[in-house]
Structures are given as structure tokens and as C-alpha cells.
Design a protein that fits this description.
about 300 residues; mainly alpha; 7 helices; about 0% strand
Amino acid sequence: MAELGLNEHHQNEVINYMRFARFKRGLCLKTVDSCFQDLKDSRLVEETFTVDEVIDMLDGLRTVVHSEVESELINTTYTNVLLLRQLFSQAEKWYLKLQTDVSELENRELLEQVAEFEKSEFTSSNKKPSADLIKPKLAPLNEGGSELLNKRVACLQEENEKLKTRLKTIETQATAALDEKSKLEKSLKDLQMIQGDQKANANQDIAELENKVAALKCQFEKTLSDSTANQKFLEENLVTTKHDLLKVQDQLSTAEKELEKKFQQTAAYRNMKEILTKKNEQIKDLRKRLSKYEPED
């Protein structure tokens, strides 16, 4: 027996459709035969006919046959569309997308294979269809049959929405953390600028003292040139001034170190440094959490 390359269930469905098509084809042929018989019974009642009468009868017959055949072909097209609709509806319930190749409908080899299949199923065997072909078949899967799949899809969609919401929340937190880090960094820069200004002021004081020393030195030299009597006194005064300068420089250096040490020991500095450390840790943690939800390349 010829085969179509389908499983038993689908091949039985094809046989049922071919039986339906053969039935409709038989009705169409009977209709065409009745058109000719009506012509014989209604018009062919005389022995001879003129050419015009024969042409008139053939034109009328052609019109009737043309109308019947056209109506049957249109009905066949609509029937095939309904059959495709059944198949596509069942496929869509399982989220499948079927495709058709219209060019294969004119494949002569496949058409001959179908003709051989019809011949083997209907022509060579005039017996009635077997019980397997006419017994009731299971109804196509409906919404109840695919309820489990629909629930699973709905569950996955819900979980996907939750993940999207969670990702948005994490992104918002990460953005807020970055903004806060930027603010803290700006505050730290401001404090560093203040500290730099303080150092600049200290350097300015040292420069002023150096200028004073230079002025004293100039005065000493002038005084030395004017009077050698006051040379010893001026030299002693210069030494004392140098000692004072060194002492002041040492005091300024000590004060600067103490100022920097006190600044580092202030609660604001420690709190800011601790906040920056925590924020850096939070950002590292958020980046690790975000990397889990980023798609792989």
C-alpha cells in the first residue's frame, strides 16, 4: 500500500479528508451530468436543428456547467481554508508556528504519489472503511488540555516580571549609591582644599619671617658699614634673630603637624572616611549582584 510518510493517526486523518473530497467530487460530477441530461430532456426533442439552435444550446449548457464548476471550486477553496484553520488553531494553543510551501502543491511527483495513495486506498479495495478509520477519534486539544502549559507560561511570565522589578530596584539603589559617593568625594575635596589653604597660610608666614630676616640682615650690614662699634652688638642680635627664626620655624612645623593630626582625628574626618569605605563596599556588592542579571555574550 502506498504511504505518505505520516504516522498512522495522521494518515487516517488524510484518508478521511480524501473520502470527503471524493464525495464532494462525485456530487459535482453528478451535477454536471444532470446539466447535460436536462439539456437532452428539454431541448433535444426534434430530429433536426439549425446551426444557430445548436450554438444556442451549447452556450446555455456552457453557462450552466461553468456556474456549477465555479461554485464547486470556490466551495473547495473555502473548505481547504477551514481545514488549515483547524490545524493552525491547534498549533497556536501549543505556541507553535506552522509554515506551508505553496510551490509543493504543484509538485508532479508528489501529486502522483497522492494519486497512487488514493488508488490503493479506495479504487483497489471496494470494501467499506475499517473500524479504525471510522471509530471516534480523540478530540483536538482544547484549552483544558493545555491548561498545565498555560499555567507554566503564566508562572514564568510572572517570575520574569518580578526579576525585572527587582533589577530596576537594584539599579535605582546603585544609582543612589553612586550619587552619594560623588557627593562625599566632593566634600572630601573641599576639606582637602581647606587643608591646603591652611598650609599655604603657614608658608606665607614663613615667607614673611624670611623677609623680615632679610630686612634685618640688610639693616645689620648697613649698620656695620656705618659704625664698627656696634658690630659686636649687631652680630649678637643677628645670631639671636636666627635662633628665633629657627625656633619659629620649628614651632610652625610642630603646629602644622599637630593641625594635620588634629584634623585627621576629628569626628567629621573619621565619619567621612568610614562612610566612603562603606559606600565603596556597597558599590562592589551591587556590581556583583548586577553581574548575575546581565545577559552573557
